[in-house]
Amino acid sequence: MSRRHVAPLQAGNEPRYRRVLLKLSGEALMGGDNYGINQTVLAGVVGEIERVVGLGVEVGIVIGGGNIFRGLAGADTGMDRATSDYMGMLATIMNAMALSDALRRNGMDSRVQSALNIEQVVEPYIRGKAIRYLEEGKIVVFGAGTGNPFFTTDTAAALRGSEIGAEIVLKATKVDGIYNDDPEKNRNAERFERISFNEAIAMNLGVMDGAALALCRDQRMPINVFSIFKPGALERVLRGEDEGTHVYCG
Description:
By secondary structure, the chain is α/β, with parallel strands linked by helices. It is built from eight helices and eleven strands.
């Protein structure tokens, strides 16, 4: 499936993108809690998604599992890395189910597809079916990462975005873009409005892991990093306004 070609960035009333891949971190769902899913945060995320779905945007979502279990954290304690990564994948499925349920309770049609086969709980990932769901206006939440250990959910977002023909990967984080230093530690850190993939990789800014950045660059699929906690930010990104940081090919 070929990716749609879009015009250069510009603000306007119509959304600039019609099919997107939204990457949500599990940690973001915790809010101020130490563990699990904060229902207030979840409701806020659902509200942001509802606004863009109302614009006619087709939305696929890859969600992490760090609020429940992080594979790298398990490996750091001596656990076998592959085992801990599979446990992390199961955590993402739990988050995907919770998000999909919240979307449906707010009147949006949603499906969960998993890279691991647990058909009694959620559907297996099937590319053609996922694309059909998107064309029908359903939100597709992708769980279990890529289904393989040693790969992050950032890489899963780049992979699923490429497979479904998304026009952009939207990475929702706790901060409002990519900075030249940690803005929580350095009050003088400056946000990049735009930065190329090659610059982001060379500067090792930590926006995504190297495999995810390289895949998006090679597929010429831009990334926008923004704060999921900033009301209306997701919609502004989709309208082409100056929101977050736009990572472009070039």
